[in-house]
Automatic annotation (TrEMBL):
Name this polypeptide is given: Glycoside hydrolase
Pfam families assigned: DUF4015
Limits of the DUF4015 domain: 94-282
Molecular function per GO: hydrolase activity
Biased composition regions of type Low complexity, renumbered to the chain: 49-71
Domain of life: Bacteria
Biased composition (Polar residues): 75-90
Residue segments, region Disordered: 49-90
Keyword tags: Hydrolase
Length: 401
């Protein structure tokens, strides 16, 4: 029987590493495909969720721009008071430093209701006293620091957050405390320059010297402290020479080569430069008569608007204008008896003099709304209301814009 030869059949064994690599490759393809599909799906969903060009520019799609959240800006009426239009310019009230913290809620309510957008706080009065808690060593030496003076920082922040601009008013060279205590800061007595000159008011008052570096440094340091506390603007009152000056007053050797108006201008420039570094505005407060082109001796013979700063604030309180107010060819025997005519006349004088001020009005004088209307008719939309109590109601602050 013939033998049949059988061939052994066999397969070459595959390397286990090749099998592992093959499996990994497949896994990568599967996972990659999954993520690619997911990304494409997410992109399609994202595109479908985006608003069209027209809807993205509509008011409802924009962030809220409540004017009350813009410090120092105009304050518009809220939805609860739709008939009130946007405030024009500065609408401020004056509040004492001592009562500021207790009146924050009241002030914020007035701002929210579209009645005010600024608050003026007296931080340094004409007797030289600082009305806030100061850390200045020079203020302590001058006897200007008050033991019970409040810390205003918290109240200022609350007002700023509520869209209310805070303005610190400070009396400058009219300051008998610092003049008597700070070396080299006072107006001296010409017959004997080692003695401090006193004005002719009752009991005599010393004045800070606008030519003296010690006086200017002291005032700038106070303003800087107010700026660091949170005030947005510094209002300089009494940037002037004594209103009852005499030949016996001595301002130092510099007065022979630098005019009085130049001395005041240099001070305002130095103050403005220092505050600009802190992003704080500087304005000057002056009397109404001088701003309207009348007597200006205390400002060195110029209209106070020429002294610098970022604008003028004019004291137009009729109760403070005295009797027989003369403006140009007009004389008003009793300004307080006819406040509207007084405001109209002074406003016309300021307009002729090229002055565009913020005006301080007495909140307790008669026909306040008529005074405000007279200012508006003259093109002056900025005003500050003053009341010693510092309390105001929405009704008396309502104006026709």
């Amino acid at each position: 029987m013939e033998k049949i030869k059988r061939r052994k059949s066999f397969r070459r064994k595959r390397s286990p590493w090749k099998i592992i690599l093959l499996i990994l490759g497949c896994a990568v393809l599967v996972v990659g495909g999954f993520f690619a599909a997911s990304m494409i799906d997410n992109y399609i969903n994202y595109k479908n969720s985006q608003p069209s060009d027209a809807s993205s520019s509509s008011p409802s799609s924009q962030p809220s721009s409540d004017p009350a959240s813009q410090p120092g800006g105009d304050v518009s009426s809220q939805a609860s008071n739709p008939g009130h239009t946007t405030l024009k310019g500065t609408r401020a009230v004056t509040v004492s430093a001592q009562s500021l913290s207790s009146r924050v809620t009241e002030l914020l309510a007035l701002a929210k209701d579209g009645k005010i957008n600024a608050v003026v706080v007296d931080i340094k009065t004409e007797d030289g006293t600082l009305q806030y808690a100061t850390n200045l060593e020079a203020a302590t030496r001058a006897g200007a620091a008050k033991a019970d003076a409040p810390d205003l920082s918290t109240a200022l922040k609350q007002l700023k957050d509520g869209g209310v601009k805070t303005i610190a008013r400070m009396s400058c060279f009219k300051d008998p405390k610092a003049a008597m205590k700070l070396s080299g800061a006072a107006v001296m007595y010409r017959p004997n320059p080692s003695l401090i000159w006193l004005d002719s008011t009752k009991n005599g008052k010393a004045w800070l010297n606008p030519y003296a570096d010690a006086a200017k440094t002291y005032l700038i340091d106070i303003a800087a402290e107010a700026a660091d506390m949170g005030f947005a603007q510094i209002l300089l009152a009494n940037v002037q020479f004594p209103d009852n000056n005499s030949s016996a007053s001595y301002y130092g050797a510099a007065a022979s080569s630098v005019s009085q108006s130049q001395a005041l201008t240099e001070f305002v420039t130095q103050m403005s430069d220092a505050m600009r570094a802190k992003d704080v505005e500087v304005r000057l407060q002056s009397g109404a008569l001088a701003a309207a082109g009348g007597t200006n001796t205390i400002y060195g013979g110029v209209n106070p608007v020429a002294l610098g700063g970022e604008g003028l604030v004019v004291d137009l309180r009729v109760s403070a204008l005295g009797k027989n107010l003369a403006i140009g060819e007009d004389t008003i025997a009793d300004p307080a008896a006819d406040p509207v005519t007084t405001v109209e006349t002074v406003a016309a004088g300021m307009k002729s003099a090229g002055v565009q001020p913020v005006c301080i009005l007495d909140a307790d004088s008669t026909n306040l709304s008529g005074q405000i209307s007279a200012l508006s008719a003259a093109g002056f939309d900025d005003f500050v209301l003053y009341r010693e109590s510092g309390s105001y109601t929405a009704g008396e602050l309502t104006t026709k814009d």
